[in-house]
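Example record for the data management plan.
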Amino acid sequence: EARFTSDRQIVDFQQIKGWAGRTRTGDLAEMTEVSEDSYIWPRVTSTADNCLGGACPRYEDCFVNRARRAALAADVLIVNHHLFFADLALKEDGFGQLLPGVEAVIFDEAHQLPEVASDFLGLTLSSHQLAGLARDAIADELKEKSGVAELAPAAEGVEKAAADLRLAFGVEPRRGAWSELDGNKVFHAALAELKSRLGRLTEILERAGAKGEGLANDFRRAAALLERLHMIGDNPPPEYVAWFETTARAFSLRLTPLDVAAPFARHTAGGKKSWIFTSATLAVDKNFSHFQARLGLADAATGLWDSPFDFQRQALLYLPPGLPAPAAPDYTARVIEAALPVLAASRGRAFLLFTSHRALRTAAELLAGRLEYPLLVQGSMPRAEMLDRFRAHGNAVLLGAASFWEGVDVRGEALSCVIIDKLPFAAPDDPVLRARAAALEEAGRNPFIELQLPEAVLALKQGVGRLIRDVGDRGVLMLCDPRLTGKGYGRIFLDSLPTMRRTRHLDEVREFFAAPAENIHVHGEAVGDRTLSAS
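Corresponding structural encoding:
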């Protein structure tokens, strides 16, 4: 207990220890009694960095290896995108495999693939990785008794240098291109110190590695992190964008490919394997070219199937008149004023989806005390708990940002209205977007038409898809952004949505909710507009 610094940590550890003896899968999602961000989790779990593989004394009993053995014997295997790409990376590097060979790969929610591929084809160096390395090196030195006295001080030096580098970014959390730091002498001095400290720890671990597998693995990790640090900080490849992101206490340094089409196409081209990509949001105005270009699927066969839902009967699109341009200082306040009578007509039962956390916080302040319905605000509790409460209340109003735009399924009357504040264009100062847009401009192409607009259309379709999840659902979709009717590109957004009745009159919204719902006994799968691309 001397290693714990609070009663909460002791309780968490005891609960995890008891669960570890009962669980049959080792899936952390089972352990709901302990918070995901508990201090204990990183100290009792293995990661790709510190896993000892076959050298681990519990290798045969490992839950991951049990699952892997079951997967190798399966006829049909269901995994998430990240595990699939992790397996792809292992095979490409010649380090083995996580998943068996297959005859066909079917991706659901395939619209997420370009960003998932960007993560796996890029590089990340984070303060969490550095702190984890330092912590494990000290623990392994105590366990394996290397006798290298300078190891612990060197590891502590890396952790301190990482903390100092975070401070050098400035107090406020931010994200930006690496080039923004060119004139920051404090930052580059802190970066040089981290390189020196990490280099020193790597040298010490190389000598200590002969004392045990744990320290040998720590050496491999340190060497890999040092290589990443030099690649990101000294000479990033021209086909990548180097950027950074900070939170209150942590940082990430990243290399992201400008284009994933060529490397992804290497895996899908040739061979006898079939690749099928399916999602409700692959097409922009019934055209697949944007998705195909992002993943190098120019020759893929495509198909578009109608939704089983009758949007003309089940839904009403409300475009409120009189709202200012989204850049107006009082825009969010005006959106809330326009939304209040709609929320009264819907009797709560609504999602308000925002394109920024700042707008969400402003809306929460404006709505506090003005609703007769339960108000649930993202950030006040875990996402799963918010959704459980929303369903249980039956008349709640939920305010959410990006994580509520997709992957949320609330069927029935509990969700009868979705209100979206703005068209979900990516932030113009996003470093990856800016670099990709600049690359398109240099090639004589139009980044707004080829990149920003189609990405925003697909994101809007995801948000809209929260409303009608079953053939028995009814609801009003309120899109507040005046650019839908005031800009030429607004038509592309509207034409990409399911065909439904539209109105600019609040009275028609009230009439929709006042009309008795038809008694529909048939229930269908919540698929929305399904689109498919296969090769």
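Summary line stored alongside the record: The first helix runs from residue 7 to 22.
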